[in-house]
Amino acid sequence: MRFPPRRPLLAAAALGLALAALAGAQDPPDCASCHEAQARFDNRHLALTPSEVQGRAVGCAGCHGDPAKHLESGEAKDVVRFAPGEGSQACLTCHRSMGQNEWHASEHARAGVACNDCHKVHAASRPETLCATCHEAENAQFRLPSRHPLQEGRMTCVSCHDPHAAGEAQLKTKQRANDTCYRCHQDKEGPFVFEHDPVQEDCRLCHAPHGSVANKLLTASEPMLCAQCHELHFHGGYTASDGAIEIGGLHRESSNGVLGLNKAFNTKCTQCHSRIHGSDLPGQGVSSHGRGLVR
User: Fold this and answer.
1) Do the domain assignments include residue 101?
2) Which residues constitute the domain of residue 91?
3) Last residue of some domain: 123, 151, 177?
4) How far is CA 57 from the centre of its chain?
5) Is residue 257 assigned to a domain?
6) DSSP state, residue 250
7) Are 278 and 199 in contact (CB under 8 A)?
8) 136-139 contact pairs (CB < 8 A, 24+)
């Protein structure tokens, strides 16, 4: 007994499913005839199929409910609408299963922020523009001399933050805050034989993540940043002899002047302690062995 070839049957079934999905993804023309601006061709929600939302209604009806009564009366009260501060529950109906299950415990939710306070459901928007409307201080820091390249378009707020998460500062990490930094700054992670304790604890002890007046996003300029934990070198208080002194039978003067030691030891610590994030090499001839992080 010969059976009919299965390939045409499979192709017909696939075509039927595709047509059904396409039909489910399009709205009746009644909505678009009045709400042309909202029914844009690039609206992601209007392109959804029932299979993507666990069989729920798609198109305008997916959020605004059955439009039959509204179409008959023309009254706005006969369709589901969302005022600012409302709408999160409608969004979470679908998005809770799409990675937003922490939303109710997040800082934004606790502050009374709703989905439609930030998201324009019918159009796309830029994340950094949205964030700046509330986070004015952080937005201003991105205009300081030393900053992350948000203004240059090389990153956005969501490069580091997940606005829907419930973790510390809503960072994109489930562990330490440092793990967010190490995604780009892998060379600072270690492990190192000789470590710098604040580096292992929290990058923000020394760095301002959004922007700073000091170089390299430091919270203060050197040596004052280092002096918050470390005593300054005692050599920095010495002064050189005024005039020439005899050394090895030759008369020599300090090329850096009377305050040469003060300038050398009290200006910029990383001139000598260059491996400030950690090192695997011991410092030759230095009493601290490798703990001085000099190479």
Assistant:
1) yes
2) 81-123
3) 123
4) 34
5) yes
6) E
7) yes
8) 138/210
User: Are 128 and 188 spatial neighbours (Cβ–Cβ below 8 Å)?
Assistant: no
CA distances from 115 to 30, 89, 109, 135, 158 (A): 27, 9, 9, 16, 16
Helix (H), strand (E) at residue 69: helix 68-73
Q: Is the dihedral of CA 45, 50, 51, 53 positive or negative?
A: positive
The span from the CA of 212 to the CA of 141, in Å, is 7
Specify whether the CB–CB gap between 118 and 162 falls below 8 A.
Answer: no
- 179 in a domain, yes or no? no
Is residue 259 assigned to a domain? yes
> What does DSSP assign to residue 171?
B
Determine the residue type at 223.
P
Write down the pTM of the prediction.
0.70
Domain count, the chain: 2
Measured at the alpha carbon of residue 136, what is the angle toward residues 135 and 141, in degrees to the nearest 5?
105
pLDDT in tens, the chain (295 residues): 454 555 555 555 555 554 444 444 444 446 877 887 777 666 777 777 777 777 777 778 888 888 888 878 888 888 887 766 666 777 887 777 666 888 888 888 888 888 878 887 777 766 667 888 899 999 999 999 999 998 888 998 989 999 888 888 889 888 888 999 999 999 998 889 889 988 989 999 999 999 999 999 999 999 999 999 988 887 777 887 777 777 788 888 777 778 877 877 888 888 888 899 998 887 666 566 667 787 7
Last residue of a domain, one of 101, 123, 145: 123
